[in-house]
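Workshop exercise sheet. Pairs work together: one partner reads the sequence aloud, the other fills in the structure field after running the prediction. Swap roles for the next sheet.
Pair: D.N. / O.F.
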Amino acid sequence: MSNEQGSHQQQSGRRWYRRPKPKVLPKKPNNYAFIDSQNLNLGVQKIGWKMDWHKFRIWLADNYGVTKAFMFIGYMPDNESLYEQMYEHGFLVVLKPTLEIKNVQSADLTGEDKQLEEKHLVKGNIDADLVLHAMKELPNYDKAVIVSGDGDFFGLVEYLIEQKKLLKLLAPNRRFSTLLKGFDEYIEGIDQHRSELAYHERRRPHSS
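Structure field:
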């Protein structure tokens, strides 16, 4: 065998090792939720259940990739502990100052006598704050999840769809505003997930 042939065989027997290409991990979604707390809370209570806020926060993250969840609430001094709990569950609580409105109504009419009863109503309209935050945070999130069935958010929802920034519109129950009917492909009823999200009080064991 000539030297030339041996050299050729040696070269052909070499093994070349290439470094494996690094795996490109899929980008995790960075979606924000904007929650109308009163609409959500009253909406589920009207159909007979209470929300477990801890479960709800985890559910938003697992199902919709929500990294930040803004909870808009009308501020009441007596509810400080509730706001702290919301924060502990992972919500970013945005408090709106409330106004006390006196609504005078006539009641119990007997002859010429008229007894007037003052009913004190507390109003904390968070709609403007929710819209403002959704717009301010627009560059920071991939998609928005709007949690409300209130028709006042029609303009916001429409704009987010135009900008391809709306992921879901979560309505507490099927009785959401007719103004939102045109967004059916984005709407999902939270009531469909009652078994996953309902709050159940823990029964205390009976003492012997």
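Discussion prompt: The beta strands are 31-36, 66-74, 92-96, 99-110, 113-123, 144-147, 166-171, 187-189. What would you look at next?
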